[in-house]
Amino acid sequence: MIPAAFDYVSPTSLDDALAALAEAGDDAKVLAGGQSLLPILRMRLNAPEKVVDLGRIEALRGIRDGGDHIAIGAMTPYSDVVTDALVQEHAGLLAKAVETVADPQIRHRGTVGGALVHADPAGDVGAPVLALDATMVVVGPGGERTVGAGEFFRDLFETAVGDGELLTEIRIPKHTGWGSAYEKFVRVSHQWSIVAVAATVRLEGGSIAEARVGLTNMGSTPLRASAVEQALVGKGLSDLESACAAAADGTNPPSDLNGDADYRRHLAAVLTRRAVQRAMGG
Amino acid sequence: MTRITVNVDGVSCTDEVEPRMLLVHYLREVVGKVGTVVGCDTSNCGACTVHLDGRSVKSCNVLAVQADGHDVTTIEGLSSNGELHPMQAAFHENHALQCGYCTPGMIMQAVDLVTENPNPSEEEIRVGLEGNLCRCTGYHNIVKAVAAAAGSMSSERTEAR
Ligand SMILES: Cc1cc2nc3c(=O)[nH]c(=O)nc-3n(C[C@H](O)[C@@H](O)[C@@H](O)COP(=O)(O)OP(=O)(O)OC[C@H]3O[C@@H](n4cnc5c(N)ncnc54)[C@H](O)[C@@H]3O)c2cc1C
Ligand code: FES
Ligand code: FES
After folding, report:
1. Is residue B38 lining ligand 2, measured as CB closer than 6 Å?
2. Mutate which of B56, B112, B126 to disrupt the A interface (most A C-beta within 10 Å)?
3. Would you say the CB of residue A30 lies under 6 angstroms from ligand 1?
4. What is the rounded (10 degree) CA torsion for A91, B117, B115, A70?
5. What confidence tens digit (pLDDT) does each residue in B91-121 have?
6. A193 falls within a domain
7. ipTM attached to this prediction
8. What does the CA dihedral A168, A174, A175, A180 come to, rounded to 10 degrees?
């Protein structure tokens, strides 16, 4: 299948990209790694008049140490995130979740920024970014603003990034020394998450001092299981079950061919316990 | 139309293409590299896998214009001086293909895998080929071939030292 015809520009600076978007208005689409956008264009679910490719803007690529956080350029491909030493040391949860996305070929092209703006509720990048309290840097005609992960995801395929705006950077507070695990439940390999749980914990003397838990595909956006995070404080490896039982409280998961909502609620509790246990090294 | 220059299997190609043209169609229809095939409409099957700047990608999910100024290696560029690449030879020796449709993509992904991880375990081979579907072999001989090629590629490296 072949996309409908479009005009193509590949600016080399952020300013030129913003100008190209402003000029085209509603009819423009941003192209990052293309691993969601190109299938959409090929199926003709969308037919923009202009495609603005961010692939030649070097400033949007790369991972750097920002002091109390690590800063990931929106155009950094998944494969770089998985192998990056800074990410592994200070945001291990993100590396573990990204490693489960699709396949190696798609991880060579797909970008963290593209995944976040695409905001598929079954996507694997949202939950860890939410659990790690990341801040997104969004740039538009009016300048730059920052948006907390809690306010970033608005609805199915909808984020705080408006028309004419670009996500440029993801800032992740350092979680140095925290254990982490991403439990992705699928029936066959190479499948999107039916449900997945992202958990990261800081231990003190064998029990949990702090915990962060994010849920994938338990609603129209990635969710944070705050009640579970509270309940886990002070818990050791042997008493996780009751603290994790409430993982699905307040969620509204979808029902589809892979499972109904009740099944997903059940999975959320089981996967949360497994993820926390693995994050603790158990 | 947009003018692009792509280095394909070591040869610089300059062409005028429509921005919507997929890299796989550029390779097959403009450059004539029909060794790279299309097996699906959803970017799931991996038959179209090529290397872009040395890393594996699904060429049905990349625009030709995105490859402008970059290097592409297809299955047709793997052998040198008429000698099969060790991965190609291992697929041959281990009977790792039946109809052969998945083979170009399978081999390109397997080469990427072994470049990243020179001594993969069986599990790592299976996971590394997650994005490549084969409807014939049941994968068993493909996994054997990749393990054999990894072995011969690393002994070649040792001899070269
Ligand atoms: C076969 C297959 C399997 C997959 N399996 C999984 C999986 O298991 N888990 C998973 O999480 N994902 C999966 N994906 C999806 C993949 O992760 C994509 O969602 C991701 O790569 C999108 O990032 P991209 O850089 O390719 O973005 P693109 O496809 O280029 O863009 C996606 C959207 O975001 C917009 N956009 C991109 N970057 C920016 C920016 N910086 N600022 C503003 N807007 C922007 C684009 O306009 C577009 O609307 C799969 C995809 C395929 C084809
Ligand atoms: S043809 Fe490209 S993945 Fe199937
Ligand atoms: S050999 Fe026929 S699809 Fe793999």
Report:
1. yes
2. B56
3. yes
4. 10
5. 999 999 999 999 999 999 999 999 999 999 9
6. yes
7. 0.96
8. 30
pLDDT band at A73 (very low <50, low <70, confident <90, very high): very high
Closest CA to A185 of A232, A127, A252, A115: A127
Task: Please report the atom of ligand 1 found closest to the CA of residue A102.
Answer: 5
Name the residue of chain B whose CA is nearest to A190's CA: B130
Q: Are residues A164 and A262 in the same domain?
A: no
Of B19, B43, B127, the CB nearest to A8: B19
Q: With an 8 Å Cβ cutoff, are B19 and A190 in contact? A: no
**Residue to test with chain B: of A105, A107, A108, A188, most B Cβ within 10 A:** A105
Cβ–ligand 2 contact at B43 (below 6 Å): yes
Q: How far is the CA of B133 from the centre of ligand 3 (A)?
A: 8
Domains in chain A: how many in total? 3
Neighbours of B101 (CB within 10 A): 18
Q: What's at B52, amino acid-wise?
A: L
Domain hosting B73: range is 2-78
Radius of gyration, CA atoms only, chain B: 16
Q: Give the three-class secondary structure for A183.
A: strand
Domain's final residue, options A38, A53, A68: A53
Q: How many domains does chain B have?
A: 2
Closest in B43, B52, B128 to A104, CB measured = B128
In a domain, A146, yes or no: yes
Ligand 1, atom nearest to A120 Cα: 19
Statement to judge: residues A151 and A189 lie in one domain: no
Q: Pick the last residue of a domain from A142, A171, A200.
A: A171
Judging by beta carbons within 10 Å of its beta carbon (0-12, 13-18, 19+), is residue A157 exposed, middle or buried? middle
Residues of A in contact with B21 (CB under 8 A): 2
Range of the domain at A237: 181-279
B46 ligand 2 Cβ < 6 A = yes
Residues A42 and A11 in one domain: yes
- Residues A216, A222, A223, A224: is their CA dihedral positive or negative? positive
Place of tokens 């390999």: A189
- The 10s digit of each residue's pLDDT in A211-227 is 999 999 999 999 999 99
Residues B59 and B120 in one domain: no
pLDDT by residue (tens digit) across A79-105? 999 999 999 999 999 999 999 999 999
